[in-house]
Amino acid sequence: MAHREIFWNIPYGVIIYLLVLIPFAILGWGLYKMFLLWRIGKKENRINNIPSRVWSVITFGIFQTRVIKDIYAGVMHLLIFWGFVILTMGAIIDAVESNIAHHLLHTSFLKGTPYLYFSLTLDTFGFFAIVGILMALYRRYVIRPDKLDNKPENAILLIWILVMLITGFLVEGARMAVTEVRQHPDWAIFSPVGLFCAQGFLLTGLTTSGIRLTHQIIWWLHVAIGFGLFAYLPFSMLSHVFLSPLNQFFRSFEAKGALTSIPNLEEA
Predict the structure, then answer these.
(1) Which DSSP symbol is given to 40?
(2) Domains in the chain, start-ordered, CATH in brackets?
(3) CB–CB of 80/133 below 8 Å?
(4) pLDDT digit string (tens) for 131-180?
(5) Which residues, in sequence order, are CB contacts of 228 under 8 Å at separation 6+?
(6) Which helix (H) or strand (E) element contains residue 18?
(7) What pTM was estimated for this model as a whole?
(8) Which DSSP state fits 47?
(9) Which residues have a Cβ under 8 Å from the Cβ of 139 and sit 6 or more positions away?
């Protein structure tokens, strides 16, 4: 039955659950600093009119209807946003499968047909995210709209994300080259990007042990890049992409430019 071994070829891979505390702590600190900044604003009821706020999250925060008015920028934002949302959900599902379903409940829900479509979904949205990042690089450094402020940080961050995504597919490809391409080709077709990378590894002429070693190196590199990006997220330009739903929920419904009434004006 189709499945994937968690931490395949990674000795002591469980140490990742200790290491992840570091980026989580930095992320939490960054979010706390944001929270302090938000509190500087004037006091206002931002939890009223819940239906309108939820609708605002759906239309503006999730489906990005404001930016999609510019077709290129809109598609780019949607690819990046949804690519990372699905990949993050996939990582959470993987963690639940490994730590709760497998170790605590002694069962597995990621096997057979559900696993195959899970793999297909992650490959598809991972590819979408790569396309979105490439579109962002092209827009910033080839099209160069006047409204964009191209700081060095922007290029570094976009390339950082791109490398993280590519190394993720290389890790998948190396694993598939050893465990699926020849043994289970019917499984491999459900991971098309991983299959492409796996075929590349096989074409290099590397031995199985060579591919395994390469897999371990790229796996740890991918983890380091991902943890670093995760920790840096609240301090980066991309924070607005992922905080957009929150910003939309807590946005002010007052008209722009509306003046705040002054109490006891006649006595002022």
Answers:
(1) T
(2) 54-251 (1.20.950)
(3) yes
(4) 999 999 999 999 998 888 878 888 999 999 999 999 999 999 999 999 99
(5) 23, 160
(6) helix 16-19
(7) 0.86
(8) S
(9) 72, 73, 76, 145, 148
